[in-house]
Amino acid sequence: MKTCVIIGAGITGAAAAWHLNQHPGWRVTVYEAQPWAGGQLRAAFHQGVPYEPHGPHIFHTASKEAYDLVAAHCALNTYRHRACTVAGPRQHHLTWPLQIGELEKLPEWPQISKELANRPAFPDRANFETYAIGIMGPTLYEWCCYGYTVKQWGMKPHLLASSFAPKRLDLRTDGNRAMFRDPYQGWCEGGWHTLVESLLKGVDVQLGSPFTLATLPPADAYIVTAPLDDFLGAEPLPWRGVTTRFECLAGTSGNTLPAPVVNQPSLDVPWTRMVETRQMSIAAPRHGTIIGYEYPGAPARHYPVDDVAGVNRARHRELAARLHREVPNVILAGRLAGYVYIDIDQAIIQGLHAARKITGKAGTN
Question: Domains of the chain by range and CATH?
Answer without folding.
Answer: 1-39+192-236+305-365 (3.50.50.60), 83-172 (no CATH)
